[in-house]
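Appendix C. Worked example: Crp/Fnr family transcriptional regulator
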Amino acid sequence: MLPGAELGSRTSCGGAEPGPDQVHGPPTCPGRRDGGEIGCGPHGPRRARLCPGACCPRLGGRGLLSQGVWEEIVREGWQRRYAAGDMMLRQGSPGTHLLACTAGLAKVVQHRPDGAVLWLAFRGPGELLGEVSVLSTRGEPRSADVVAVTECVTQVLDAARFRRFVEERGLGADLLQQAMDRTRESDEYRAELVTLSVSERLARTLLRLSVLADSRQLTGLTQEELAQAVGGSRNGVAEGLQRLRAAGAVETARRVIGITDLGVLRRWAGCTCRPAPGRNTPGPTGRARPPVPPCPVCRRGFAP
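Step 2, the predicted output written as structure tokens:
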């Protein structure tokens, strides 16, 4: 039996997206001090650094922005927690704010005019949520729901403040790269739907979730959610999990999937990536190496 994972004490918005009165309220991070100082209880005040406690977690999983940019973004917001199942952002609502996810797993789903619910992506630590409507020059509403799969910890950023922050820091290129990476992910997903079996797509989904959550234990997922993510049926997912269990790649319990042999799962997923130097690691000439595209299979920041 696999134990479930908890992030700590639960405080949430009660299932509703925060309104403007909540978004523009004072910062709730317990480590924030007047005058821009940040500390955390016994750690004392610290200026221009992230609190080392849970109130200001560092970048984790598959962050698409650099560490330095991410730390600046997190410092601009204030903390908000969501319980599993809470609506974090609602389709059709105005882009009054965005969220920077620092812990937990969320799913992005779109409601179609015919009533169908379309799965779009999983999101996790180190990723921005709702930034498209915030940055839209046409004032477009949110195009999808963002729902917490597990308990999520985020930093809330007001739209106007974030736009000003992007302009002052010259972050247009970073956000463009993030948009390009997500477009490539969507293209890869569509190709997988017609070229891979359900079991192979399931193995890739579990591998990507492990990278995203930076954990070999995945909690909170239902077979229905996995079926939406792999573009298959619940029966197909159940059969795929059975094959992966028989191969020794995973073991399962209620809403818990544990990866027991990462090598086997990678083979099922067709992942052969290898570690690549970080973007700030000096190359042979002493200059910083250029950023390396994520692996298209597991989406870790590795080179194929």
